[in-house]
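Notebook, student rotation project (T.W.).
Task set for the rotation: take a protein with a known small-molecule partner, predict the structure of the complex, and write up what can be learned from the model alone. Partner molecule chosen: zinc ion. Sequence and SMILES entered below by T.W., checked by me.
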Amino acid sequence: MALDFVNTDVVSEHDRTSDVLRSADEFTAWCAYADVPGVTTAGVCGANGDELLDETRSLRTAIRTVVESIAAGRAADDQALSTLQSAYTTAISHAIPAISDERLSWRWTTPTPKTLVWELTTSAVALLSDGPTDRIKVCPTCGFVFLDTTKNRSRRWCSMDDCGKQEKIRRYIAKRAETRRPSGR
Ligand SMILES: [Zn+2]
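Predicted structure of the complex:
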């Protein structure tokens, strides 16, 4: 869920409009699509829509930055970590802890568009802390983030049907162009 959320804005994809979330209502629509808990009763965004959208986007940027750092095995940007921390603090401070399915979970009594943001925040923190972080990957072609669930963790692209094939075609064309170029001139 957290990675799908990050993929609502694919930064390096140049041939289509990258941001799926252009309004707070599009955010709640996406939450319905992604089955974020509480979305069916969360209600509408109302007057605070723009504020919610800003909050959503900065959270998404922070999660992407941390995801990319983990995937690349490097330290994360301090600002991204502190954005994630403050979103998490807010989410937890409004939550009611409960034990369900023999594990600790966080729930919010009245679902609102804000609780959807909190659901995404806690889901992201759970994934980025408990993993499987060694399966988190970033597609080198389009920037999609995904969990590599293959046995030997050999998956490179978001989907072999799209990006993998595209990359192979691109390499083939580049190679052809190279060999056809007259040498020594
Ligand atoms: Zn891709």
